[in-house]
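Human: Not sure, check this?
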Amino acid sequence: MLATLAQQPFHKPGWIYEEKYDGYRILAYKEADGVTLVSRNGKDRTSSYPAVADAVANLGTETLLLDGEVVAFDRHHVSRFQLLQEGKAPAAYAVFDCLYANGRDVRKEPLSVRREILEKKIPETSTLFLSRKLAANGLRAYEEARKKGFEGLVAKDLSSPYVESRSTSWLKVKVHQEEELVIAGYTAPAGSRLHFGALLLGAYQGEQLHYVGKVGTGFSRSTLESLFRRFQPLIRQKDSLVDPPKEANVTYLAPRLVAQIGFQEWTADRKLRQPRFLGLRNDKAPKECILPERP
């Protein structure tokens, strides 16, 4: 189940407001003592997060299917995608929904029932915990998320079933702007910079990949090197962007890699303001990176 973006904070009676996490969406399948962790695009991630798999395996329930987010927290207990990707903090699993419990399909039950199941089954540990509720009023929940520095919040209709698609029964409200965008090329390095200068970024409108800006910050020396190696098999002569920028010394890439980008805001002409690189997303397909509507 995927959340729809809300343009501004709101309050609705009968809704719950949860912290929005900045990590990898993961389904956890438990059968007896065996656990499999699966990403949004169907890849087995069990070996990537063994501590999470062990924590789920230790739950008493015989069969279980959980939905949640694998995250890593900074010292202020704010989830940071960059920390998770670089392995600079322990991985934890924030569980926010239950699809099966003891062999029973609960997807058609209202969220209030599914959440009650989770409250009985999920302990509060450093590796496994139930997604944290914010204030009961949506506007106060937004202020809480803003003051604590969270990425945002997710508002959920407590009467809604679990559907395997994007839904307006789950609405996400962003506090800090982040977006997944396609890497379409890179510029040559300058000065003491090694490997490349900045990444050219794009987003799809239909079948066309549009240029949305370039990012040249957020890279460590090791990240520059590892990305440069990833880029080499993707080099192509023809630009994949329908509206490429007028840049000198650009190397174009096949649109295969997706980057997570933090930024201040979208401009009126749909370009990024003050972008910074946060990491690669191997759980997102390039065609999922959609150009926003004009503000």
